[in-house]
Amino acid sequence: MLNSIADNLKQINDRIERAAKRAGRDARDIILIAVTKTVPVDTIEEAVRSGIFKDIGENRIQEARPKIKALGDKARWHMIGHLQANKAKDAVAIFDLIHSVDSLELAEEINKRAKGVGKVQNILIEVKTSSEATKHGVPTNNALPLVKDIAKLSNVRIKGLMTMAPFVDNPEKARPYFVKCRLLSDKINKEKIRGVEMRYLSMGMSNDFEVAIEEGSNMVRIGRAIFG
Ligand SMILES: *Cc1c(COP(=O)(O)O)cnc(C)c1O
After folding, report:
1. Got the DSSP string for 26-95?
2. How confident is the model at residue 133 (pLDDT cuts 50, 70, 90)?
3. 221 CA closest ligand 1 atom index
4. CB-hemisphere CA count at 13 Å for 17?
């Protein structure tokens, strides 16, 4: 199992490298997040111990909790799934970066819970760049006002944007959604909003990560291409 994971990762890293080169970027600036939903904790532990990845994405608190308990700070933990406000407390307790903040209400709840434990929670704003990919995310046109509101909260820090392209047979068709997200990130950056940093663009999954990198992604979230 570990051998095939390591082989898959080697191929993915080569593809990341080539995509970065095409875009005139340095592959070392691109963070590969191994998406481990449905992957058993033993397998993850082995992979992390042998140093083949360090960033891990999970989309459900319940599934993430025992994994984080087992591995703790040997990995960096990313919440990539939809988060309900009533789970904010749990998310703040265990995740380094929450990619899926799409409302002021959720951000306020995260802020409150982070304050309660003396943490400043790093977050990304999830942007809905397509009508079909997901029901979650703030519509592109509403993102800037949302960022401005969330920026006023003391215990959350906006570190960038996340988006999902619709699932398409040809990854080229995902490109316009990544472009849309990058342009939005540039626009927010120009506003120089206090405390807001457009440092990460979390875009690209197994089927479309190369196109996402060509369009500026520096966090790719990859599951199936690693774990089969
Ligand atoms: C599952 C998931 C991924 C990984 O998808 P793959 O197609 O397995 O690479 C990425 N992002 C989110 C939000 C996911 O839920």
Report:
1. -GGG-EEEEE-TT--HHHHHHHHHTTS--EEEES-HHHHHHHHHHHGGGSEEEE-S---GGGHHHHHHH-
2. low
3. 10
4. 6
Render pLDDT for 149-188 as a digit per residue (tens, 0 to 9). Answer: 999 999 999 999 999 999 889 999 999 999 999 999 999 9
Beta pairing partners, 202: 162, 219
Name the residue at shortest CA distance from atom 6 of ligand 1: 223
* Position 139 pLDDT exceeds 90: yes
99 lines ligand 1 (CB under 6 A): no
- Give kind and range of the element (H or E) at residue 114: helix 104-116
At 176, the amino acid letter reads P
pTM of the model: 0.97
Tokens 């990995």 -> residue: 75
